[in-house]
Every structure is written in structure tokens, then in C-alpha cells.
């Protein structure tokens, strides 16, 4: 078995992925727009998100997102809560976090080796949020599917999916975009080889 790594991110039109779920989720750096996703209860996109969570059999999270999830989901009920609470959870951290959420363990320092080991153990490994950690996965192309749910709002500040200094890379669209009735856009990309190329646009023949 060779499992697949799915990166799932909610983002604004200007690429902000910080604290979509609530005001207290991640107020770091004075971020004032926590919960920006809430005004868009898009059923089409919500169904797609729920389907992906229902199919996961492992979670791979950065430390901050793990702490947020561990403080929330064990106290919830329903299909999404059941899926997240029952799945094995792997945490990428350079420190020594207290991992009290049932089924949690910390990854070792050799990320490539650890990810390949997860692929041998699980079929559908999802990285949800974890924006800082995602930068490393994208740089090393340690992912198979990058799903961006792009919401029709501009915030002008906050942690971005692709911040200044992000590693240059090519990606390819895996399937047609899906648009929900509230204007939320679902885009799925996979890694593509090589460095970004440049050229000169000429007149059409």
C-alpha cells in the first residue's frame, strides 16, 4: 500500500489561511478576523469537505493546529468529530508537545522518512490547516493533493498559504474547479516537476 498525502486549506482571495474557524482559533500577531469562513455556509463545498474527512484514516498536523484541534474536537459529536477523534494523529514539532488527544504521536526529525513510513501505514493522510508546516511539505513536494477552498473575501493581513519567500514550484490541476452557490471555489492541485519557467508573450499570429 502506498498512501496519499492530502493538504486541505481554507483560504481567502488574497491567500490568507489563518483562523478560518473562529475568533480564538489563532489570534497570533493580532489577527482580527478569526472566523472569516463562518459567513459562507456553502452546502456544495461543505459536502465535499465532509466527504474528504469521512474518508481519511490518519491526520498529519503542525503543532499549533494540533493544539487547536485537541482542545476542541474531543468535546464534540457527529460524523466529523467521530472521524477526527478516531483517526491516528501525527504531530510535526521540534519541541516536546504534550499529546493528550487519544491516538496522537510525534513524528521524528527526518520528515521525508516519516512521511514515507506513513504512506506505508495509511491510505488517506490529511493535513488540515497547519499553514507553517505545509510550507515544508510544499517545498519538499511531500504531498499528492493540495486542495484549496477559496472564499470570496479579502482580509489584507494574516498567515498566507504562499507567503513571501515561498519555495518556487509547479503544480498541475487535477480536476475541474467546483464553485459553490455562495462563490466559494474548490481547486485541487498535484505536484509537478521542474522549476517555474519564464518567457515573453508575443503577438498572436
Q: Based on helices, strands and strand pairing, what is the structural class?
A: alpha/beta
Average pLDDT rating: 93
Reading off the top of the CATH hierarchy, the class is best stated as Alpha Beta
- The CATH topology name reads Dihydrofolate Reductase, subunit A
> What count of structural domains?
1
Poorly predicted parts = none
H/E element order: EHEHHEEHEHEEEE
> Given the C-alpha coordinates, what overall shape results?
globular
Largest sheet: 9 strands, mixed
Number of strands: 9
CATH superfamily: Dihydrofolate Reductase, subunit A
Question: How big is the Rg?
Answer: 17 Å
Count of DSSP H/I helices: 5
Helical residues, percent: 10-25%
GO biological process, one term: riboflavin biosynthetic process
GO molecular function: 5-amino-6-(5-phosphoribosylamino)uracil reductase activity
Pfam family, one: RibD_C
Protein name: Bacterial bifunctional deaminase-reductase C-terminal domain-containing protein
Write up what this structure looks like.
Helix 1 (43-55) packs parallel to helix 3 (79-86). The chain has five helices and nine strands, in the order E-H-E-H-H-E-E-H-E-H-E-E-E-E. It has helices at 43-55, 63-72, 79-86, 111-121, 131-139, and strands at 4-12, 58-62, 89-92, 104-106, 124-128, 145-151, 170-173, 178-179, 185-192. The mean pLDDT is 93. Strand 8 and strand 9 (185-192) form a beta hairpin. The protein has a single domain (4-186), classed as 3-Layer(aba) Sandwich (Dihydrofolate Reductase, subunit A). Strands 1, 2, 3, 4, 5, 6, 7, 8 and 9 form a nine-stranded mixed sheet that branches. By secondary structure, the protein is α/β, with parallel strands linked by helices.
